[in-house]
Amino acid sequence: MDTLVRIALLPGDGVGTEVMAEILPCLDWLESRGHRLEIYHLPFGAEHFLETGETLPEAAFEEIRDGFDAILFGAVGDPRIPDGRHAEEILLRLRQGLELTVNCRPCRPLWPGSRPVIDLEVYRENTEGPYCLQGSTEPDRAVDLAIHTEPAVRRLLQAAFHRAGTRGCSLTLAHKANVLKHGHGLWMRIFEELRAANPGIVARGMHADALLCALVQDPTPFGIIAADNYLGDLISDLCAAFVGGLGVAPSLSWAPHLPYRCSVLAEPVHGSAPDIAGRGQANPVGMFLSTALLCRHLGWESEAAALEGAVSLALAEGARTRDLGGTSSTAAMGAAIRAHLPR
Ligand code: GGG
C-alpha cells in the first residue's frame, strides 16, 4: 500500500477554478488505482481576499508547509485587485516560502503530426531574480531589485545538469552576463563550475536575445534550457507557443533540498485569464499535464503516462478548446481526456 499523500488544492482565480474542477475526478481515479490521497480544498484567492481581507494567512502557510506533501494550484490574478497584491502574497509566497527553486516547464508536441517536433524543457529558477519583490517607486525613478543567491542558482543548475544527463540531451543557459555583470556573472561562474564537473554533458551559455532568435528559427536542437526567474518566464512562454500555447503548458516546481514536508507544487503555466473566465472556454490540458508531472514526481509513472496519453488521445480524436481552434467547452475537453484513462 502506498504512503498517504496529503494534497492541498488551491484553484485560485478565474479559469484556475474551472480547470481545477476538471482534474478533481482524476484524483478519485488515482485513488481507484491504489494511491492513498487526502485532499483539502483551500479558498485562498481574489474572492476570499475581497470578502475577508486575507491573502494567505501565516497560519495557513505554515499548515501547508508542515502538514501537506504537495500542492495542486490553478491560477491567480484578478482585475479587481490591480496591484496583484493577493497574487504575490499567495503564489509568490508559496514558491518562495517553500523554497521551490526549480520550476520545470516541458514543451512537447501533443498530438500526432503536430510541428515542430521539439522535446525541450525550460528549467526556470522560481524564487529570486527581479521577482524577489524588493524595490521602490519614487517620483522620477523606479527600482526593482534582482537578487540571485548562490544556493538557489546552484540548486537550479544542478537540477538542470542532472536532467540533461538523464535525458542525454544538451543544456543551454540563457543569460545576459555581458550586461548584468553581477547577477548573471554569478550564474556564469556556477554554470562553468558544473560544466567542468559534468564533461559528458554538452552545455553552453547563450545570450538570451540570441537564444530567443535561435528558438524562433529552429527550436528542435534544444534539450534543456536553464534560466533565471525572469528570462525563464519569458522563454517558457515562447516555447509553449511551439506546442499549442499557454493553455496546454504544464509546470512543476519543487525544492530538491527538501527543506519542508511540502516540497512540490504543480500548476498550469497560464494565469487566471479574466477575459474568458466564467465562460467555460478555458483549456484544461495544462492542468492535466501538470498533474501528470506531479504523479511522476511522486513515483507514479504509470499514472503520469496514462494522463499524458489520455490528453494526446483526446486531441488526436479532435477534441479542441477555442484556443486550439475548436469549440469544446472546458468540461467537454476534460471529459474527452478522462474518457481515455484506463480503468
Ligand atoms: N498558474 C500560474 C499563475 O497563476 N500565474 C500568475 C499569473 O500569471 N497571474 C497573472 C494573470 O493571471 O494574468
UniProtKB/TrEMBL annotation:
Isopropylmalate dehydrogenase-like domain span: 6-337
SUPFAM superfamilies: Isocitrate/Isopropylmalate dehydrogenase-like
Family matches, as Gene3D superfamilies: Isopropylmalate Dehydrogenase
Keywords, ordered alphabetically: Manganese, Metal-binding, NAD, Oxidoreductase
UniProt cofactor(s): Mn(2+); Mg(2+)
Record-linked InterPro entries: ICDH/IPMDH, IsoPropMal-DH-like_dom
Lineage: superkingdom: Bacteria
Claim: ATP-binding is one of the keywords in the record: no
Annotated PANTHER family: D-MALATE DEHYDROGENASE [DECARBOXYLATING] (PTHR43275:SF1)
Any one Gene Ontology molecular-function term assigned to this protein's record: metal ion binding
Stored SMART domains: Iso_dh
Protein name: Isocitrate/isopropylmalate dehydrogenase family protein
